[in-house]
Amino acid sequence: MAEHPAYPVGLRLTGRRVVVLGGGEVAQRRLPALIAAGADITLVSPEVTPSVEAMADAGELTWERRPYADGDLTDIWYALIATSDHDANTRASAEAERNRVWCVRSDDADEATAWTPATGHSEGVTVAVLTTDAKGRDPRHTAAIRDAVVEGLRDGTLVAPHHRTRAPGVALVGGGPGDPDLITVRGRRLLAAADVVITDHLGPRDLLTELPPNVEVIDAAKLPYGRFMAQEAINNALIEHAKQGKSVVRLKGGDPFVYGRGMEEVQALAEAGIACTVVPGISSSISVPGAAGIPVTHRGVAHEFTVVSGHIAPDDERSLVDWPSLAKLTGTLVILMGVATIAKVAETLIAHGKSPDTPLALIQEGTTAAQRRVDATLATAGEAVLAHEVKPPAVIVIGEVVNVGPNPSA
Ligand SMILES: C[S@@+](CC[C@H](N)C(=O)[O-])C[C@H]1O[C@@H](n2cnc3c(N)ncnc32)[C@H](O)[C@@H]1O
């Protein structure tokens, strides 16, 4: 028979009986999609992998612990034949053919009546890639095409402009600590679809260079020692642009709600009746220490970590931080915005009982090409900042966790 291209179709399997023969690696890879499709799955196999067993234990499928037997493929809609026994697979696919059940075969694509495409999902769309005929089958190639399409749709490098649904309103996007790869998939996609981006000096600035020329980028930088745009002005800019029906992204460093004043913007938008969606980001408080080889917790060393703002010195009456209590904690202290105040903070912690020898690390511009780490102790922190000219943005980690990783200077 002349080879014709396979006919692509989406099976709606909710509540419909599907039989999977074999419980090995192939079944393990294919089962999640069948479960996600809501299929009523019976898996027939004397043995299964631990992951497949976990699916059975979770009630996601019914596992019959036995080999395939003639009659297993009656009254079903679809079969996945993937045992390690070629003869059993051949008998099963013959039964599927007799019963007019579409069947996929892991060991012999020519004998199958259906092929599983390489699939991926992006924003309510399933991308499914099949080679045209059996001779040209190249699963790695189809998977690579799938990856390219899905990745492109997710990160916005592949845009379908005529069908793109523009979402007027504001997305408050956490951009992560600085490395452009550390923004979330959702954040990157919203950025790619924005009309206006209002950004800070922190976060993934490199992503802004990728934006199309029609995107208006507004710098709301609140530089530590320079001119700054008042929060009110930022709120007004967000409101004004959103009222013009534009898709506005407010791009922030790290997570919007970790010293990011994100909720003030959410509140202002709510008062103005403007839709706002919040996209969490990877906070520098955890990721910057991690990027410098410091885990904020470690078994047997630190069972808690506390993130503190150091922007107000301990002896300043505006300080809301209970430094004496923090000095008593045995876990890790992570200080943000603390470069200018670290000498006073260290002095206060020591005065309230923390050992002067407690290890401390300052990580400047973490996750970026300019990242650097300066190690010190609580007693030497102030000097270290001056000697090494540590500048913001920097995360300061205080605690034994500083020394648990491989020594960066060894
Ligand atoms: C206003 S706070 C914003 C924190 C941000 N929302 C987050 O979740 O990471 C700014 C402080 O975060 C820290 N920070 C942010 N990004 C950093 C980076 N890439 N390297 C070092 N510190 C960083 C610094 O302590 C900086 O002074």
TrEMBL record:
Keywords: Cobalamin biosynthesis, Lyase, Methyltransferase, Multifunctional enzyme, NAD, Oxidoreductase, Porphyrin biosynthesis, S-adenosyl-L-methionine, Transferase. GO terms for molecular function: NAD binding; precorrin-2 dehydrogenase activity; sirohydrochlorin ferrochelatase activity; uroporphyrin-III C-methyltransferase activity. The active site is at D200, K222. Residues 170-380 form the Tetrapyrrole methylase domain. It catalyses: precorrin-2 + NAD(+) = sirohydrochlorin + NADH + 2 H(+). The keyword ATP-binding does not apply. It holds the Pfam family NAD_binding_7. This is Siroheme synthase. The lineage of its organism: Bacteria, Bacillati, Actinomycetota, Actinomycetes, Kitasatosporales.
